[in-house]
Amino acid sequence: MFRSVQQDNGGFTLVELIAVIVVLAITSVVGGGFVVSVVDQYQKAQLRSTLVQRGTVTMEQLARQLRMSVPNSLRVSTGGDCVEFMPLIGGAFYTEELPDAENNKAVVDSVDTVEFSLLDGTPSQILVAPLDSTEIYTVAVPSARIAAGDFGVAPYSQAVFSGNHRFLRNSSSRRLLLAEQPKRFCIVGSQLIRYEGYGLDTGGISSASPGGTSVLMSASLEAEGSAFVLTSGSEDRNAALLISLRFADRGESVLLNSRVLVRNAP
């Protein structure tokens, strides 16, 4: 008796081969999409990290300069896109009472001081006990500010005014403040610009260029409401400047906020 023996050749049928090809194709597409997604997310994370680093440096530069400003010299434009301040470079103690609005002494063009020197900068403004920005950005007499004259050679023992002046009040500690010309930070389009060397603007601060020299602080900014918001303090309480800037690049953006405290005590 003969038996029928079926021989197994170990091959694939056409259907099995097609099935394998389809599975491999699907796996390739899914795997490739996953890899692309991972790479894309990594690139976005790197870009956001770069934006945060760049923004942090900019915010620190702003805060550092604004903290070293004359008390009550900060003022913000109506739209919140510009902030102006008067850089403080030193101070001195004067030895005799200054003419002010209360004692009505005769105006003077200088005052003797305890000997002092300045580490950096040249004073262009002399201030005594300013309690509000309107007492600074004015040419009225009396006021809390007068342009500085020629101090001569350090060490100094006298503060020289640009002309005769009477102040609004004397400092309780008989201390006068020495400052540079005002500076201004403004958001112009997508850029943060610092303006300096434009002199004293006695009008209200606006978003228009004040002239002088402009320096690019940062670029690729996006509008995010008011960039600068000033919360006024009092003589014994610091003023707070809120800064809000959005840094953007290639579809990614990060919003950074900072609160800068500026002393108000003259």
How would you summarize this macromolecular structure in one to three sentences?
The chain is of the alpha+beta class.
Notes on the protein architecture:
With 266 residues, the chain is α+β, with helices and mostly antiparallel strands. It has two domains: 51-85 and 182-262, no CATH class; 88-179, no CATH class. It is 20% helix and 33% strand. It is built from one helix and 15 strands. The chain has one helix at 14-67; strands at residues 75-76, 82-85, 88-93, 108-116, 125-127, 145-147, 156-165, 175-179, 183-188, 191-196, 213-218, 221-222, 228-231, 239-249, 252-262. The strands form four sheets. Strands 1-2-9-10-11 form a five-stranded antiparallel beta sheet, covered by helices on one side. Strand 9 (183-188) and strand 10 form a beta hairpin. The longest helix is centred in the first third of the chain and has 54 residues, at 14-67. It is rod-shaped and about 115 Å long. 26% of the residues are buried.
Number of helices: 1
| N- to C-terminal distance | 122 Å
Strand content: 25-35%
Number-wise, the strands total 15
Give the % helix.
10-25%
Mean pLDDT: 88
Class based on secondary structure composition and strand pairing: alpha+beta
Low-confidence stretches: none
